[in-house]
Amino acid sequence: MVRRAGGRDGKGGATGGGFMICAAPTLTAARVAAMAKSLYHSGPGFRYRMQQYRPYLCPVEVLLSLVPDSGSVLDIGCGCALLLGLALRSGKEIHATGLDISEAALQMAAAMKEHGLGPGEGERLTLHHSRHVDDWPAESFDMVSLIDVMHHVQMEWRPAILQAAISRVKPGGILLYKDMVRRPRWRAFQNWCQDLLVSKQWIHYLPIAEVEAVARRAELIELRSETINRFGFGHELRVYRRPG
User: Fold this and answer.
1) Angstrom distance (rounded) from CA 126 to CA 160
2) Domain count, the chain
3) Domain annotation covers residue 85
4) Domain enclosing residue 117, as ranges
5) Residue 44 in domain
6) Which of 41-45, 46-50, 218-222, 239-243 has the lowest mean pLDDT?
C-alpha cells in the first residue's frame, strides 16, 4: 500500500526539503550492509552483527534515501546510530544528532564515530544519552526521525514523545516515521519474538492510525505512506512535512 502526496517536481516525484521523497533508493540493501560493515569494527557480538544484517531485515536503503543531502537531522532512539553513520558515510553534508536511552548502544555509536567515520564525517555527528524528552535538544531540525521507537515506549508516554518530536521539526522540515506492522498478525508476531529475544521487552504496537491522527492535529502534510515487507517483517513508513 502506497499513498503519496505533496508538491511535485518535473519528474513526478514528491519533494520535501530539497530532496526526493518518492524517488527510488540509489543503493541496494547489499551495498548498505557492506557500508555498515565498514563502519563498525567492534562491540558486543550480537549488537555488532545486527548493524551489518539489519539492512536485509529493514528497508534501511529507503530510509537513507529520505535523509536530506544537507541540513540538520535529529534521530530519536538512534540506537548505534546506524542511519546517521550511513548518511554521513554516503556523502550527505548533514549535521547529525542522535539520542538514545541505551548507554551500551551509544557506546557502540561513539566507537563508530571515532573509528568508522572519516574526520570530516565524525565531526558532524553528536550523540546524547536521554531518558526523557526534557533531555532532548531544544532547537529544531530540518529532519526528525523516529525509527522503530514507539513500540518500545510505554503507552502513556507515546503522545508526549510524538508531540515532542513534531515540535523539533523546523517549519518546512520533515518528520520521518517508521515502525513495525500490527497486521497481519504473523508478521507482527515475528517482530514480537525478535524484540523479546533481543531487547527482553514485551512490546505493544502503536496503531499507525494514532500516529496519523497526531500528525493531522499538528497540521502536518503527508508526503509518503507505505507498507514495506521484507523477509517476513512488515514496516509502516510515513513521511510528513511541517508547513512553513
Assistant:
1) 23
2) 1
3) yes
4) 2-23+63-241
5) no
6) 41-45
CA distances (Å), 83 to each of 80, 106, 180, 183, 185, in order?
Answer: 9, 13, 17, 26, 27
240 has pLDDT over 50: yes
134: Cβ–Cβ under 8 A, 6 or more apart, which residues?
Answer: none
Query: What's 210's domain CATH number?
Result: 3.40.50.150
pTM of the model: 0.87
- Return d(Cα 202, Cα 188) in angstroms, integer: 12
Q: Count of CB atoms within 10 A of residue 128's CB?
A: 14
pLDDT at 195 over 60: no
Q: pLDDT tens, 165-176?
A: 999 999 999 999
Element (H, E) at 33: helix 29-39
3-class DSSP state for residue 32?
A: helix
CA atoms within 13 A on the CB side of 162: 27
CB 144 within 8 A of CB 191: no
Residue 57 lies in a domain: no
Band of the pLDDT at 34, cuts 50, 70, 90? very high
